[in-house]
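Lay summary. Proteins are chains of building blocks that fold into shapes, and those shapes determine what they do. In this project we predict the shape from the chain. Here is one chain we studied, written as its sequence of building blocks.
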Amino acid sequence: TTVIGSLPRPAWVRDVVLDRKSGQLSEKESDRLLDSAIDSAIRLQERAGVEEITDGEWRRESYVKVFAERVRGFEPDLNSSGGLLYPAVVAPIEYYRPLAVKEVRYVRERTKRRVKATLPSPYIIGRRMWNAEHSKGAYATREEFMRACVPILRQEIELLRDAGADAVQLDEPWLSVLVDPAFRDVEGVSDVHHEMDLCVDLINETLDGIEGIATSMHLCHAHYNRKHVTEGSYELIMPALAKVRVGMISMEYATPVSGGLESLQHFPDGVRLGLGCIDHCDEKVETVETVVSRVEGAMRYVAKERITLHPDCGFSPS
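And here is the predicted shape, written in a compact code that computers can read:
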């Protein structure tokens, strides 16, 4: 069992993160305030029996913006994507401080459980933070920018391993949302197979050759405020998933918008399934029987020895 990354954040934790962003709090003061919150997040997961834990991502504004906070070349809140404001790349990027090493080291010193680090994938970074108006001077195309992110992420993963992370997860919701034709129309995606192949190639380039740390990627239908952005079965992307060279692929299956478990009949061999079995967008808390039923349904398609359990996604946007 594991978590995807973020845990539900108390309002005051979010306020501290935003006050740090606005300059009302220094990073040192922010860390002092958040340390005790992270301690409680660790205890929460341990008490629940979760075998692989994170720091709840409580030091981050978001799972993807953390890249722009620790890599030079961005300006905040320039790019509107999915109804939210994201940074935009405006200059050649430069890796000047670790993204999550400090966070992993803090958790590693406080638990004997497996520790997972989470990072945005190069494809989602490019989708969220390249904007033609602001970014073409630095990177002529979105794909050029995505590829520039790969060596930075590789360096970070090696540092995370050395800091004590047992696993690293690359978050890639865009690969899932591509299954929705309405979304593809809105985003102007004319060649979905090119986009899928690009996404997979970037994941493989980021992880190939890195040893000593378990690897996974996470997919979901993208959500905010308990609402999903897209819907649709994963059958379209299953051939692409077969090309991803990771140890585990974590997918959102508890929510009805994912189209049911039948697409698992096409899930690739030789990789673990991270099964989303808790619908984090549903305010009704599942019973044990509901969760067991979902897991048994997945076992019709994937052997139980290959299944890890977790929620559909992280909880902080809910």
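What the prediction tells us: DSSP finds twelve helices and eleven strands in the chain.
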